[in-house]
Amino acid sequence: MSERKEADLVDHIDFDDNRLVAELSGQHDAHLAILEDALDVRITPRGNRFAVSGEEGARARAIAALTQLYEKLQRSEAIGPGEARAAAKLSDVTPIKAIAAAAPSIKTPKRLISARSANQADYLEKLASHNLTFGVGPAGTGKTYLAVAHAVGLLLSGAVERIILSRPALEAGERIGFLPGDMKEKVDPFLRPLYDALHDMMHADYVERRIAAGEIEIAPIAFMRGRTLARAAVILDEAQNATPEQMKMFLTRLGEGAHMAVTGDPSQTDLPNGQTSGLADALAVLSGVEGIAEARFTAADVVRHPLVAKIITAYGDRDSHKRRP
Predict the structure, then answer these.
(1) Which position among 35, 80, 81, 275 has the lowest Cβ density within 10 Å, counted as fewest Cβ atoms?
(2) Read out DSSP for 198-230?
């Protein structure tokens, strides 16, 4: 692979593998269109050569993004619109090589998972190096998904004996006592995002066998009381909906050989008005405690549809105006 610069308005980059070049461009050049829109450049494919026009800095970022995507294909990783958007973000924030070194990919049976933003890379590094990590920020930033991926990697490598995934059984003002069905039928809808993350990384029958064997447990936070969670990868999701008492109870379950991740968005609590969020309380109480890490995300880290980031920003702007005197 070689790169040649022409004049001040156009750069060229060449790739060696014809088969990978087609995948790099995407169907109907969809991946190139994403990079063009995100980086304000024009990318024209001509066989194995791509002509990139635009401002100098934008051209450099586009070439860095194309290079990153091509290297993923060389490693037999699949790329799609999400990877193209992520490559555009990474090329605009931090040198790609530095991000890759800071956050190695996590291999699961169904896919290889890697950071899509600088903050995701920081989060993965903290998950790997600390026994307790808080992942804090808006929806769609990968907080829970990456924590589950880290837990799956630990289980498959034998570093832990089980995965325990938990959530407060409280969403959008509803409480499980008012819902129909037995206890499992009541709580499963609240825990469905955790099942979805597992099934995205491991085959369904494998997940079900692990659940039946007790090696994967998914349960509301109330079920954790009185237990010691040793040699386990433990995740508390939607932690903003835990009370301070529940949060203290959960954090003190941490046992020998365990890794714990706590994820949530303090600005999106479903607790009754005036009640303190256990996540916000824990972040304040435990700030600066050695051995505990905190990773922060913003709307710029959103990896869902691009409109999600704009929606989060719009609501954030509205709320900030409301708080002004």
Answers:
(1) 275
(2) HHHHS-HHHHHHHHHTTSEEEEEGGGGTT--B-
